[in-house]
Design goal:
Mean pLDDT: 72
Largest sheet: 7 strands, antiparallel
Low-confidence stretches: 91-100, 432-460
Distance between the termini: 87 Å
Radius of gyration: 49 Å
CATH class of the domain at 290-455: Mainly Beta
Number of helices: 8
Order of helices and strands: HEEHHEEHEHHHHEEEEEEEEEEEEE
CATH architecture of the domain at 290-455: Sandwich
Number of strands: 18
Helix content: 25-40%
Strand content: 15-25%
């Protein structure tokens, strides 16, 4: 008991202010390193001569106002723990008390070694120069750390779930696109096979016709030679000539032979099919023409994305090629022959229209809208309906679900006179003599959703 009493007195002295000789109350640290009660420092300041700065009572080093002195929270925590131990009888000697890490009276935590300490370990052990916290303060700090780590873990888990969903969506889109391209490539290859088979069937007949015409020419040559070797009498020569003239003048039916031997049509068909197959694997990269855009449309710096700004800027000057009535914009590129394919990424939550038109499409009036004249063809998503329109005649595609397509592929066969739209679950074909420049139109629904059309780069 005497030993514990002595330890208590020593600890009380160490935790007492050198001015008031009481346990520290709101201890503050001076620049010199000494600590005192905040109230005692105010008393020191009041006792100083006017105009002279207060000084440390021990080393006489001057300091500024007590309000600017930093609080010694570590010392304050130790004093609070000491008061609690003394008031609760925690410093009384007990036979079951075991000093060190397993002490039954542990009230402190060493922040350096992360071990529990009792009062005796704190005063006489190896932790005297280490940072120390009360159990309550350590628990509070650890609770905050756990909360931060828990929130961080939750955020990362949510991010992982979002990335997983995105990866699954992209995988499904890739699978669907691959199936679509494979189906279209199969159709093209089947057409090529049909043309090649038909050509092979015609080729043996060609040989038969050539032999037949050779025989005809040989017979005609024999008739001519017999006529030339006939008697020299003029009367007889004329008589032989008149008798053989029909055979000499009979011409072989070379038109049938030429039609059989012609390969130009075959080569043209195969060339078109190869061009179509090439366009499937290498879609065009198109760009918008800023000179044709409606004032309410805004283009990206690479001219591959168009958005609806909501209201036309009054400061924009009207361009000769620009649309005035319809919120539309033409592409920079145009086509005059061949087969071409390009892809369009469609914005969500908005109305959109995509199609093809001649460069002569009107720029003003209701007839300037895509699909509302004889020189344009349009596919549009509006009010949860997908419609195709040409020359103001609209057709609703009732077999299409209410979910709008996110990606659209447009295929133009200029020479064949067809314009096809492809998407997952969608295949719509215009069949007409339609040529011109790709064109896109869009307008916002009631709401803040912007129009966003993106012409993608070639798919590899």
């Amino acid at each position: 008991l005497a030993r514990h009493s002595r330890l208590t007195e020593l600890l009380a002295q160490e935790l007492s202010c050198a001015i008031c000789l009481q346990l520290y109350q709101d201890p503050v640290s001076l620049p010199c390193g000494h600590s005192y009660c905040l109230g005692c420092m105010h008393s020191v300041q009041r006792s100083c001569a006017p105009g002279s700065p207060p000084c440390c009572p021990e080393c006489r080093q001057p300091f500024e106002s007590p309000e600017g002195l930093p609080r010694n929270f570590k010392l304050s925590g130790i004093v609070d723990g000491f008061r609690a131990a003394v008031s609760g009888g925690g410093l009384a000697a007990k036979e079951e008390t075991v000093p060190c890490q397993q002490c039954l009276e542990s009230t402190y935590v060493c922040t350096h070694d992360h071990v529990l300490l009792c009062m005796e370990c704190l005063l006489e052990g190896m932790h005297q120069e280490h940072g120390v916290q009360t159990l309550e303060a350590a628990k509070s700090d650890l609770r905050r750390v756990v909360e931060v780590l828990g929130k961080s873990t939750s955020d990362r888990l949510q991010m992982a779930e979002v990335l997983l969903r995105s990866a699954r969506d992209r995988s499904r889109t890739l699978d669907n696109t691959s199936e679509l391209l494979a189906a279209r490539a199969t159709v093209v290859l089947d057409n090529m096979s049909t043309h090649i088979t038909a050509y092979k069937v015609r080729r043996p007949n060609t040989s038969v016709y050539v032999v037949y015409y050779q025989q005809q020419l040989s017979e005609a040559q024999g008739v001519a030679e017999s006529l030339l070797t006939s008697p020299s009498s003029d009367v007889l020569f004329i008589s032989y000539y008149r008798a053989l003239e029909p055979q000499l003048r009979q011409q072989a039916d070379t038109r049938r032979l030429r039609a059989t031997l012609a390969t130009d049509d075959f080569r043209s068909e195969i060339s078109n099919l190869l061009q179509c197959l090439l366009s499937l694997t290498n879609p065009l990269e198109l760009t918008f023409n800023p000179d044709t855009r409606h004032p309410s449309l805004m283009l990206s710096t690479d001219h591959q994305t168009v958005r609806h700004r909501g209201r036309a800027k009054s400061s924009l000057k009207e361009r000769a090629e620009g649309f005035v009535t319809a919120t539309q914009v033409l592409c920079q590129q145009g086509f005059t022959r061949g087969s071409h394919v390009w892809a369009v990424e469609l914005g969500s939550g908005c109305t959109w229209a995509a199609g093809l038109c001649y460069g002569t499409i009107p720029r003003k009036g209701e007839r300037s809208k895509l699909g509302h004249n004889a020189v344009s063809w349009r596919l549009q998503w509006k009010n949860k309906n997908l419609t195709a329109c040409h020359d103001s005649v609209s057709t609703t595609l009732t077999e299409v679900s209410v979910v709008p397509p996110k990606r659209l592929e447009v295929a133009l066969d200029y020479d064949g006179g067809t314009l096809a739209f492809y998407s997952i679950g969608l295949h719509y074909l215009f069949s007409a003599n339609q040529t011109g420049s790709p064109q896109f139109q869009g307008e916002t629904e009631l709401g803040p959703h912007p129009l966003a059309l993106l012409v993608t780069a070639p798919v590899r």
